[in-house]
Amino acid sequence: MDQIVQTGRTVEEAEEQALATLGADRSEVEVEILSRGRQGFLGIGGELAEVRVTRLGAGGAEEGREAVEPEDDDDRADVVPITADSPAGAALQAVERILESVGADVDVILRSENDEFAGGPVIDINGPDSGLLIGRRGNTLQSLQFIVQSIVRQQFDQEGIRVSLDVEQYRQRREDSLREMADRVANRVQQTGRGITLEPMPPSDRRVIHLYLDGRDGIRTESVGYGDGRKVQIIPERD
Question: Edge to edge, what strands does the sheet with 196-197 contain?
């Protein structure tokens, strides 16, 4: 074997594996870098590095020739700044560009420009790769939403802007489940007169419960704890 195309997590790793397969030293081969690869975003869309290694004297390879690296089209491409003039438009563009950059095969649709319950724009993500965007207990979706929301807040210099992302109706199903659970717990608190503390939840989940039970007779809600350990307490309203 005089030539091999090899992939690896890095160019160096791919080159080492190719040299081992050919049984050659670095000085005995020509290395052409086909791709430097890239790290995925939130674990999505990563690509392996790829090299073509040819033994010198085989297939016209020139001795002493240095590694050849093709020009990267991405380096030449101009990055077009977000120009949307509304939070919903800016959020939609941010989601589309992030997911396009990692090669996710999904469709991005603006469900609502300003949803009353969500407190801002709601964006739906659907498609073959959409499952990758949810993550364990919705953590990947939560992280993506945080990033998009931060971009929009910075663009409009408004800390109060909220952006909600939903993948294949995951968020909608999650919210429905939270409301059902809040109903059961609230009924129990009303019947027993004793407060109940729920498991730790991210801010978006806690907000669903607070808004859903707001104004319900005989109970009130509050968040307690710190950081990732913050929880919702449903407690009886004392006269």
Answer: 196-197, 231-236, 219-224
Q: Note the pLDDT tens digit of each residue in 31-45.
A: 888 777 665 555 555
Sort strands 231-236 and 219-224 into parallel, antiparallel or unpaired: antiparallel
Is residue 184 located within the same domain as residue 159?
Answer: no
Which CATH number does the domain housing residue 141 bear?
Answer: 3.30.300.20
Q: How many CB atoms lie within 10 A of CB 14?
A: 27
How many residues comprise the chain?
A: 239
pLDDT tens for residues 49-66?
778 888 887 554 444 444
Whether 33 and 15 map to the same domain: the answer is: yes
* Residue span of the structural domain in which 130 resides: 87-168
81 in a domain, yes or no? no
β-pair partners for 41: 44
Instruction: Tell me the three state secondary structure of residue 175.
Output: helix
Flag whether the pTM goes above 0.90.
no
**Do the domain assignments include residue 96?**
yes
Q: Is position 80 within any domain? A: no
Distance (Å, whole) CA 73 – CA 125 = 27
Q: How far is CA 114 from CA 68, 124, 213, in A?
A: 51, 13, 22
Asked if 14 contacts 60 with a C-beta cutoff of 8 angstroms, the reply is: no
**Is residue 223 within 8 Å of residue 234, measured between CB atoms?**
no
Give me the CATH number covering residue 180: 3.30.1370.50
**Residue 124 above 90 pLDDT?**
yes
The alpha carbon of 61 is separated from its chain's Cα centroid by a whole number of angstroms, namely 43
